[in-house]
Inverse folding.
């Protein structure tokens, strides 16, 4: 049984490996913390861009957001300009696609 | 067959619920004409709602607690006054305030009682007419709340007020609470998004969310008493409880092989194979953020990143300065095996009496000086005789959401070699274990499944 389990494990790892390799080929996941300078909701509300000022480099980075939960937070202003954001994104086709977009605010 | 019947009824009522919420709130016309003036507007048609609301956990952040060790049965406990190490304070010592200026001369508002549907002038547990009219009904009931309004500010008299959206526009879209309404506070419990439990409730993370169910489809509420479970770390309750078998049965499976397990194994154990959120924090050392403010050092995990720990639980809780967690054992027939996330937090203990101390976050947030936070909290609580020494506290968090069917634990996950359960620690003898880990007990079942699947 141990063998069966490890075969499954190996397969899973391989599967994961392929996914992340193919990702690396196209896009690299970048982690960043920055303050929102500007939010632009697209007409129809299906996508948005947010300009974050990267805390490390002080450069502005434009992030594209398409997940409904974050878009909803833009619409009802749970996330607004001036909020600090912990963000993960992948660059593809000249755009930075958001994979995670959360307020840092803690305790 | 009872299961199918019950679930069919629930599914049906969900459909009608969707139909009803699509229909307009019958009070809309009245509110359009008269505007929204707060709870009194609602009470023209829903009399006495506000007064009753003041008697709930959501307003009081406390209740009597009967299943936890070392508590006074006459006192009420909750976020109002508890002290633990997921958030090392409470509403009292961390009352909403403006913190001292940091090195960059910046200040901000902080306090635990921001997650309260009052306006801070009428605060956690307040009573009377003024408190009734201060309730933010719309934070839970509006589909178009503008959250820019819901933030602290100072009024002319220098008092800190928690803002609310009381616009007529927001009051024109009354619904029963959606997932979003509840998540305004629940998503960020414990110090940030998904920090406490990794509590994401989306189609990807929960079968019920995938079926379009909302929080209140399960947490069915009357008179604003919201039912809860028996998480060893969420003590305050409205005296009403819910469980999986309130809707499903003890024998919900087509396969008798699974049904046979429900007497000693909780549904959550098989159906919630992962948990999430922070696994450790250090309140004795805070990290400086780029904005010049400090935060407690926190080791975070995503919603489904942590493998749970399994333990017997009979719904009573051990509570000592260094441990908060489940009681129970294999011998005790009211115990079942449940999944937990273990969180370990470091904070200051009073060497004089061994008790965990609490911290006012305002001083460390501005300067990183955690002992100043302990001193301020001690002053608020009237503790004079103390010597703070760092120590760790282990806390078990229950795992009751993130339910999956496709990834539920199967026979091999538990009975296979190196399975997820530590049978020895759970009280099984070596002889029993060699039986429980022998393919004999699951081989035929799994082969049949394999044949069905392929």
């Amino acid at each position: 049984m141990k063998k069966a389990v490890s075969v499954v494990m190996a397969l899973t790892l391989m599967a994961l490996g392929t996914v992340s390799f193919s990702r690396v080929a196209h896009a690299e996941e970048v982690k960043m913390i920055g303050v929102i300078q500007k939010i632009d909701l697209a007409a129809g509300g299906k996508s948005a861009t947010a300009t974050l000022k990267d805390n490390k480099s002080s450069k502005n980075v434009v992030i594209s957001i398409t997940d409904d939960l974050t878009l909803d937070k833009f619409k009802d202003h749970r996330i607004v300009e001036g909020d600090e954001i912990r963000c993960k994104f992948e660059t593809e086709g000249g755009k930075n696609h958001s994979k995670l977009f959360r307020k840092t605010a803690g305790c | 067959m009872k299961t199918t019947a019950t679930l069919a009824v629930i599914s049906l009522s969900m459909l009608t619920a969707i139909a009803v919420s699509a229909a307009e709130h019958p009070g809309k016309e009245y509110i359009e004409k008269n505007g929204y003036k707060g709870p009194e507007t609602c009470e023209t048609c829903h009399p006495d709602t506000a007064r009753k609301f003041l008697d709930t956990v959501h307003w009081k952040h406390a209740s009597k607690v009967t299943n936890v060790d070392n508590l006074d049965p006459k006192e009420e406990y909750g976020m109002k006054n508890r002290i633990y190490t997921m958030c090392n304070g409470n509403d009292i010592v961390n009352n909403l305030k403006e913190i001292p200026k940091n090195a960059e001369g910046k200040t901000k508002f902080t306090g635990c009682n921001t997650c309260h549907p009052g306006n801070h002038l009428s605060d956690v547990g307040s009573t009377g007419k003024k408190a009734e009219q201060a309730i933010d009904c719309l934070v839970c009931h509006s589909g178009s709340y503008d959250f820019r309004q819901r933030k602290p500010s100072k009024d002319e008299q220098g008092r800190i007020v928690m803002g609310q959206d009381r616009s007529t526009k927001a009051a024109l879209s009354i619904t029963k609470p959606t997932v979003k309404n509840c998540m305004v506070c629940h998503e960020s419990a414990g110090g940030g998004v998904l920090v406490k439990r990794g509590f994401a409730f989306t189609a990807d993370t929960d079968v019920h969310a995938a079926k379009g169910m909302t929080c209140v489809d399960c947490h069915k509420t009357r008179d604003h008493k919201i039912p809860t479970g028996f998480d060893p770390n969420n003590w305050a309750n409205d005296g009403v409880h819910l469980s999986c078998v309130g809707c499903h049965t003890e024998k919900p499976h087509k396969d008798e092989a699974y049904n046979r397990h429900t007497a000693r194994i909780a549904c959550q154990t098989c159906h919630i194979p992962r948990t999430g959120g922070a696994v450790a924090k250090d309140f004795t050392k805070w990290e400086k953020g780029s904005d010049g403010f400090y935060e407690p050092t926190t080791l975070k995990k995503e919603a489904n990143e942590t493998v749970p720990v399994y333990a017997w639980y009979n719904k009573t809780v051990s509570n000592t300065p260094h441990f908060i967690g489940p009681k129970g054992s294999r011998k005790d027939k009211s115990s079942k095996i449940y999944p937990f996330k273990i969180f370990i937090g470091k904070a200051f203990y009073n060497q004089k009496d061994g008790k965990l101390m609490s911290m006012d976050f305002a001083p460390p947030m501005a300067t990183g000086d955690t002992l100043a936070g302990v001193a301020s909290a001690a002053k608020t609580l009237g503790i004079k005789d103390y010597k703070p020494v760092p120590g760790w506290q282990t806390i078990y968090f229950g795992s009751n959401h993130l339910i999956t069917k496709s990834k539920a634990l199967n026979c091999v996950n538990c009975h296979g070699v190196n399975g997820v359960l530590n049978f020895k620690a759970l009280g099984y003898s070596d002889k029993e274990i060699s039986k429980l880990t022998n393919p004999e007990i699951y081989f035929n079942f799994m082969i049949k499944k394999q044949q069905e699947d392929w």
User: Anything to note?
Assistant: The mean pLDDT of chain B is 94. The interface with chain A takes residues 87, 110, 144-148, 180, 184, 188, 191-195, 202, 289-291, 295-296, 298, 361, 412, 416-418, 439 of chain B (CB under 8 Å).
